[in-house]
Amino acid sequence: MEKNSYLTLLGHRYSCRQFGETQLTDEQLGVILEAARKSPPARNLQPLRLCVVQSAEGLAKIDECTKCRYGAPTVIIAAYDHDESSHPTPDHGPETCDFGDIDTTIALTNMENAAASLGLGSCWVGAFDPRAVRERFNVPESYRLVELFMVGHCAAEPGPQHAKRKDLDQFVVRETF
Length: 177
Fold this sequence. Notes:
It is built from five helices and four strands; from the N terminus they run ααβαβαβαβ. The chain has 177 residues and is α+β, with helices and mostly antiparallel strands. α3 packs antiparallel against α5 (130-137). The protein is globular.
């Protein structure tokens, strides 16, 4: 990889909120799913579960669960099996979470970066009705829904907010908070 090419990729990636109708190729989808598979889970327990939705019927069900599909031709429901994830004890892990949440967000990050490397757009959506998703897609009770991942060809450029970032010294300290 070229020096700084990863940072360049991150600088171009943005949350696409207007997708074109062209469906992903099987190869593109395969790259995105492989990026998720190669993501490092806690203790290598691999609790990640993904449901790829591309049919007109499936996308109509997604539209019943969220107003934020943005016309994406592919939606991936990202969840994890709580029974298979690593659960830290209060004195040996994060204060507030199950490692399944972290494992899934790492996979989503890899998926969005893989999509960007293919010239595709993506957007994580947390604004959805989990009961509706569970019902319409037969999500097992042991699965925890994390995000809906919209992916496809962008039909709009990023907004002006995309490039605005705090300076490092506004959120990084050294040695102590």
